[in-house]
Amino acid sequence: MATTTNSEGKKKSTQQNGSNGERENGAMQSSQLMKLFENGLKDIYWAEKALIKALPKMIKKATSQELIEALEHHLSETEGQIERVEKVFGILNKKAVAKKCDAMEGLLKEGEGIMEECEDGSMMDAGIIAAGQKIEHYEIASYGTLRAFAETLGMDDVAQLLEETLEEEKLADEKLTEVALSAVNVEAAAEEN
Q1: What is the 8-class DSSP label of residue 121?
Q2: What's the pLDDT score for residue 191?
Q3: What is the distance between the alpha carbons of residues 77 and 71, in angstroms, rounded to a whole number?
Q4: How far apart are CA 185 and CA 127, in angstroms?
Q5: DSSP SS3 for 30
Q6: CATH number belonging to domain 28-182
Q7: pLDDT beneath 70, residues of the chain
Q8: Ranges of each domain in the chain
Q9: What is the predicted pLDDT for the residue at 35?
Q10: Inter-residue contact 135 to 107 (CB < 8 Å)
Q11: Spatial CA neighbour of 120 closest among 74, 63, 79
């Protein structure tokens, strides 16, 4: 415990860890932010593994060749993203453990519901894109938060790995928008009930 004096001359106590107030590695490993980071990492690990199972179903239902190619490309990327998350666990000297992600489970269930309700063709493709973009936005938020936590915790190598995945998720979202606007949405709008 160190004692400092504020602008009014009153003494107050502050907690310091390590030399010069810097956190030692042990203190960082047990910090509240580190716990949030590890929980978030377990959550996104589960989410990515669940997405690996869901993407082939979307690919099978899609009819637009451009959409099929975008989904196949993202399936391949997702496999690499899982490997990156596992690498982060390794850097932390932790076993790669998945914790059920309620948000991803809900988004995937919603996507399944959309595919059940949509007719094959452009309507199905538009529904798949809508569901896919909700998933991408969730992943963008998750990886952005995890990257910010890693930066705050001084884990630059981890932050870089998470940034790579974050950029892939942003590009996947942009690609789905491009596919939707180039033809799918127009075709779905033109189809009669």
Answers
A1: T
A2: 75
A3: 10
A4: 10
A5: coil
A6: 1.20.1260.10
A7: 1-30, 192-193
A8: 28-182
A9: 95
A10: yes
A11: 63
